[in-house]
Amino acid sequence: MRPATDMRKMSSAEMDITRNSMTPADALVVFGVTGDLAHKMIFPALYAMVKSGTLNVPVVGVAAPNWSLAQLRKKAQDSIRQAGKIDDRDALELLLSLLRYVGGDYNDPGTFEALKQALGDARRPVHYLAIPPALFSTVIKGLGTADLADQARVIVEKPFGRDLASARELNRIARSVFPEDSIFRIDHYLGKEAIMNILYFRFANSFLEPIWNRNCVASVQITLSEDFGVKGRGAFYESAGCLRDVIQNHLFQVVALLAMEPPAYQGYNAVHSEKAKVFQAMRPLHPDDMVRGQYVGYRKEPGVARGSDVETFCALRLFIDSWRWEGVPWYLRSGKCLAATAAEVLVELKPPPQRLFDDSAPAAGRANYLRFRLSPDSAVALAARVKRAGKEFVGDQRELYLLEEQPGEETPYERLLGDAMSGDGALFTREDAVEAAWTVVDPVLATHPRALRYQPGSWGPKPADALIAADGSWHNPTLGKVTK
Fold first, then answer.
1. What is the mean pLDDT of each run of 10 residues along the chain (484 residues)?
2. Of the residues 39, 188, 250, 272, which is catalytic?
């Protein structure tokens, strides 16, 4: 469940913005429609949207190749078939009938004039930039010059900038063409059901608030691991690296949901404001706060420089200088070619103030904790100690485990594209939050320790263990329940 927009609890200015942005779009334009992202994610999402009745407007694909409409339709059908079975032939035929195609160079004004012709009577299109980041500014300017931005929206894929300066410049260009409420900065991670559940779980349950602070929380860990490499995307990774590709966006968004204060009202702008405050309270990173790694074999990937120092693994120690979180360390870790593909959050609580029972001392294992499993399945678990049967006061730590997986739930791109089409910005990122997040990582983008080599199938370079040693050890995600 996402935060609802409640007009009775919003200022008059925000009401006007929301009314304007909630006007449904009458067309979807996909720049980069012949690319890898469209093939793997976008076409299956569009098919699901047609099946659910949330997409019934023209879909105009734009790309450089001089394709025919028949080629685009075949691409769409092949994509949907590879993603899963085609179980609704009528929906597939409807989607194929909605497709249009414009081929041309994004630097050519004629391409945008052809797009205008393809849109026909549509006046409120959503322009989705599923293209390399280097082309974002070019396309946004082209839309403005061709008068294709009035009453329109634009969806910008991550990464939104490479650093603080480039993010500010991209924001400046986007704002020169579109109003802020018409700019949808997409991070597909925010569309995951398990991520949305963090926000719901925190503020729909009253028992958390008394312990959700520096008085009871010892540390927080977030791990997003993948057991595969760059999969032929070495050239892209050479321009990004793990810090930019995963941590500055995906993991920072999870931190914000965990650390934010309760929103003042039910409007999504209130959620955005509280998340931005978290980023603004983050202490800028220092090289001593991070460990960078690179898996053995990365330099043999196509497109990777022979002596590359790009990190495929990154671990951070982060502090949030706010009243609630002062002094609580946040440990973030992500990498490729690790031991498992999973994502988990571990909020470790402080031990009881008196050790009434010997086996409840910290030396006996982790203190109580709350665990959010984000993938491959979705779950919430609370660890507590339970006495064993018998006269002795000894026990075991066990998890109260809630499996949250729901069959038939929306995929992230289905949800986010649908939201953008309807003008719901709840699960997108605001300008001030983007720039505040880059401010945190900017100091270590150029000045950082060298990437240390690690073996595929491990949990990364050993110095990452030393980074967290003062507060225990990393929690390595495992399937199912955890007992200690």
1. 38 39 87 94 96 95 96 96 90 97 97 96 96 94 96 92 94 96 90 87 93 97 96 89 94 96 86 95 97 97 95 98 97 97 95 77 72 90 87 84 72 92 90 95 95 97 96 82 44
2. 250
Which pair of tokens denotes residue 468?
């967290």
In our burial notation (b when 16+ CB lie closer than 10 A, e otherwise), range 462-473 reads: eebeebbeeebe
Burial of 356 (0-12, 13-18, 19+ CB in 10 A): exposed
Beta strands 125-129 and 153-156: pairing type? parallel
- The DSSP code for 473 is -
Give the CA count within 13 Å in the CB-facing half-sphere of 79: 25
Helices (H), 205-246: 234-242
Q: For residue 55, which amino acid is it?
A: L
Torsion sign across C-alpha atoms 450, 455, 456, 458: negative
Which two tokens mark 306?
A: 């022979």
Q: What single letter denotes the amino acid at residue 321?
A: D
Residues contacting 75, CB < 8 A, separation 6+: 33, 34, 38, 39, 43, 67
Q: Are strands 153-156 and 369-375 parallel, antiparallel or unpaired?
A: unpaired
Contacts of 27 (CB under 8 A, 6+ apart): 57, 58, 59, 60, 119, 122, 124, 125, 126
User: Active-site residue 448, yes or no?
Assistant: no
**What's the pTM value of the predicted model, to 2 decimals?**
0.89
213: nearest Cα among 97, 111, 338, 349:
349
